[in-house]
Amino acid sequence: MEDGSLFYYSISPYELKNALGQNVAILQEYIFEKKEDESGHFNCKLYKTKDGNWYDFEDSKTGVEKGLLRLLKSAIDAKQSNGVLE
């Protein structure tokens, strides 16, 4: 990240289901982790459609700064647009 923070992440498929339990879409689930020095452990999940749009669940944003979520999304988008995804 721009401020020198280092986040680790993994990507896995996530099946989005409707109220009846039927699959609606397959999203990419990004699981971010950061081991912080004194304040403990940070983690969050973000979801992206196959078209490249970010999909937000209300419960996934609880307790995480919106600015940080925006930075993480921007960093992933920048890596993907450059063709570099580690």
List the helices and strands and how they pair.
Layout: E1 8-17, E2 23-35, E3 41-48, E4 54-55, H1 66-81
Antiparallel strand pairs: 1-2, 2-3, 3-4
User: Based on CA inertia axes, which overall geometry fits?
Assistant: globular
> Which runs of at least 5 residues are low in confidence (pLDDT < 50)?
none
Which quaternary structure do these chains form? single chain
Helical percentage: 10-25%
Mean pLDDT: 83
Report the order of strands and helices.
EEEEH
Main sheet makeup: 4 strands, antiparallel
* Count of individual beta strands: 4
Q: State Rg.
A: 14 Å
Structural class: alpha+beta
Q: Helix count? A: 1
Distance between the termini: 14 Å
Strand coverage percent: 35-45%
Task: Give the strand order, joined by hyphens, for the main sheet.
Answer: 1-2-3-4
Write up this protein:
A four-stranded antiparallel beta sheet has the order 1-2-3-4, with no helix packed on it. It starts with 7 loop residues before the first strand and ends in a 5-residue tail after the last helix. Helix content is 19%, strand content 38%. Strand 2 and strand 3 form a beta hairpin. It has one helix and four strands. The longest helix has 16 residues, at 66-81. It has one domain (8-81). With 86 residues, the protein is α+β, with helices and mostly antiparallel strands. The model has no long low-confidence stretch (mean pLDDT 83).
